[in-house]
Amino acid sequence: MSDGPAAKRLKADDAYKLTYWPGLPGRGEPIRLLFEEAGVDFEDGAQTAEAVPQVLAQIDTANLGDEHNAPPLAPPVLQHGDLLISQTPNILMYLAPKLGLGPPASSDDLYRLNALVLTVFDGLCNEIHDCHHPICTSLYYEDQKPEALRRSISFVTSRLPKYLEYFDRVIRANKQRDVANADQPWLFGPSLTYADLVLFQCLDGTQHQFTKAMTALQDAGQYEQVFALYAAVKARPRIAAYLASERRVPYGLGVYRHYDELDVLPEKKKEEKKD
Ligand SMILES: N[C@@H](CCC(=O)N[C@@H](CS)C(=O)NCC(=O)O)C(=O)O
Q1: pLDDT tens digit sequence for 115-172
Q2: What's the pLDDT band for 274 if we cut at 50, 70, 90?
Q3: Largest Cα span, the chain
Q4: Same domain, yes or no, for 87 and 112?
Q5: Confidence bin at 12 (pLDDT 50/70/90)
Q6: Residue 192 C-alpha to ligand 1 middle, in angstroms?
Q7: Residue 75 Cβ contacting ligand 1 at under 6 Å
Q8: In a domain, 82, yes or no
Q9: What's the domain range around 232?
């Protein structure tokens, strides 16, 4: 596909601009963490008085995009020069090489990292969202409470352990692959990448929604590698400063929600009946 003669006009000082809903971390947060860790400025539309109109303009059914870009269906949206892109993992994969948090776009390793990032979003973002909205996103939580409870019990019993075991194994495999750096806690390669920031944020959201289940797992010493990665990201100086700042928005009615009645523990496996 040709870029076309006018495409990709990018000036060195083109600002990064994030368009996202205000008042909740949601899917905007992993993107913010990349900028924070890299120490790179960006315009956070969610922090302005124009946040809601900016999102509504992007998702308006009359929006036809522009000469380079199709209109997005949903935020987050990133603008950089002539480029306007949506889909969180897509935005992250664009940013990571530019912010020094991933290999260059020409490297196969970027696709290896993207596979991990997509898996984090599958299990610890999209499935978590579906625990409080199992029937439909366009219905209120209050209209799907029994299904949400059933889904949440099922999630913490079988899906959450499956994903945590997987990421634990990925970290162990990374240590084995690179024995010289076996003391590092990361998912892939010898140093922190954007995939680690994404896993951190999605674990944090999971802890917010399923506090009891996550606390029980950590207290039982399970998935030690995963919890060690979480702690290592949290302790990074720029991330720690960000988390303590007013820029870090508290959880609200976004992807990650804390409903006491959904904060459940795994179901015990039924005892096999013995005659
Ligand atoms: N797969 C998309 C999902 C985007 C999404 O669901 N955005 C939410 C906010 S976090 C939204 O506003 N959705 C509106 C809708 O889906 O109608 C992504 O990863 O960016």
Answers
A1: 999 999 999 999 999 999 999 999 999 999 999 999 999 999 999 999 999 999 999 9
A2: low
A3: 78
A4: no
A5: low
A6: 27
A7: yes
A8: yes
A9: 108-262
3-class SS of residue 245: coil
Kindly report the protein residue whose alpha carbon is nearest to atom 2 of ligand 1: 87
CA of 1 from ligand 1 middle (Å) equals 27
Could you tell me how many residues make up the chain? 275
Whether residue 134 sits in one domain with residue 21:
no
Q: What is the DSSP string of 215-236?
A: HHHHHTT-SHHHHHHHHHHHTS
Domain end marker among 44, 75, 98: 98
Give the per-residue pLDDT at 268: 87
Distance linking the first and last C-alpha atoms of the chain: 68
State whether the beta carbon of 26 lies less than 6 angstroms from ligand 1. yes
Sheet holding 77-80, edge to edge: 43-44, 16-19, 77-80, 83-86
What type of residue is 167? F
Inside any domain, residue 80: yes
**Residues 92 and 207 reside in one and the same domain:** no
Give yes or no for a contact between 113 and 195, defined as CB atoms under 8 angstroms apart. Answer: yes
Whether the predicted pLDDT of 251 surpasses 80: yes
- For residue 269, being part of any structural domain is answered with no
Q: What is the distance between the alpha carbons of residues 21 and 266, in angstroms, rounded to a whole number? A: 32
Residues 162, 232, single domain; the answer is yes
Q: Round the average pLDDT of the chain to a whole number and report it.
A: 94
Residue type for position 253: L
Q: What pLDDT was estimated at residue 1?
A: 47
pLDDT tens for residues 212-239?
999 999 999 999 999 999 999 999 999 9
The answer, yes or no, to whether any atom of ligand 1 lies below 6 A from the CB of 77, is no
Choosing from 51, 68, 98, the residue where a domain stops is: 98
- Please give the tally of structural domains in the chain: 2
Task: Please name the amino acid found at residue 170.
Answer: V
Q: Which two tokens stand for residue 67?
A: 């000469």
